[in-house]
Structures are given as C-alpha cells and as structure tokens.
Specification:
single chain, alpha+beta, 2 domains, 2 helices
Length: 137
C-alpha cells in the first residue's frame, strides 16, 4: 500500500477530519484556528512532510508516515514566528516530560523584518496521547 492510501486508511477512524488528496499528495486541514495543515507529498527522491511552512524530506515511507501522524498529535506543537501577518519561521516542538523541546526549524530568507515580531503556537489534537498535558500548555 502506498503512503497516501495508508494515511487514508488510518484517517477513516476520525470522521471529523477534513482532507484532500490526489495521486501524489494528501493534506489534512486543521480542526481549529489554532491548528496547522499537515501535508505529505510523494516525489522521485521519496517523501516530503509539511507542517504549515516547516518541512522535512524522507527516504523511508515509515519515517514519513510517523512524522505525518506526529503532526496530527497533541505531542507535537508548531512555533510560528511572524512579522506583521507574515509567517517566516517554524520550529517543530515535541513534548518530553511535560516540557516543550524544539526539534527542527525551517525559515524563509526574505521577510518583512521591519514589522512587529510575534510568535504563535499551533497544535493539532486529532491523535491524543495517553497523558494529559500539564495546565497552561
């Protein structure tokens, strides 16, 4: 089974989920304004997983599927840096022992640096962990 078919099969357990797919990609829309899109694309080199503007390349299908599922879980958080209304940098964070730890950052070279800086935290809750997050997180 290819990666897109595998994701569709797994998503069938979640009737509220909204997604779009074609032969080379699948995109899950966030369930709230505080969430982020999760996208997987197939290409000649392998797979690319996107969380909004953040992305990572994978050679292995299982690694790509695990990353995709991680983006839909409450164990993942996306720290989005903005200048004005323009997002320009994203850091994927994972929860370890109740604390958020930065894993990987993707950013743009050109952005309106003169506008006011802002940071937003985005999170999806489609796949919930067995442990409830600490208060205030």
């Amino acid at each position: 089974m290819n990666a897109i078919d595998e994701i569709k099969t797994r998503l069938s357990k979640y009737p509220d989920i909204r997604y779009e797919s074609n032969a080379s990609s699948i995109k899950v829309s966030p369930l709230s304004d505080n969430g982020f899109e999760v996208l997987l694309t197939l290409n000649r080199e392998g797979f690319t997983v996107f969380f909004s503007g953040w992305h990572e390349e994978f050679d292995d299908q299982d690694d790509a599927l695990n990353c995709f599922a991680f983006g839909l879980s409450d164990e993942c958080r996306l720290k989005e840096y903005r200048r004005g209304r323009f997002p320009y940098k994203w850091t994927v964070e994972s929860r370890e022992n109740g604390k958020w730890i930065g894993d990987s950052t993707t950013g743009l070279f050109l952005f309106p640096f003169w506008k006011k800086a802002e940071v937003r935290y985005l999170q999806n809750y489609l796949i919930r962990s067995a442990v409830d997050p600490p208060n205030g997180v």
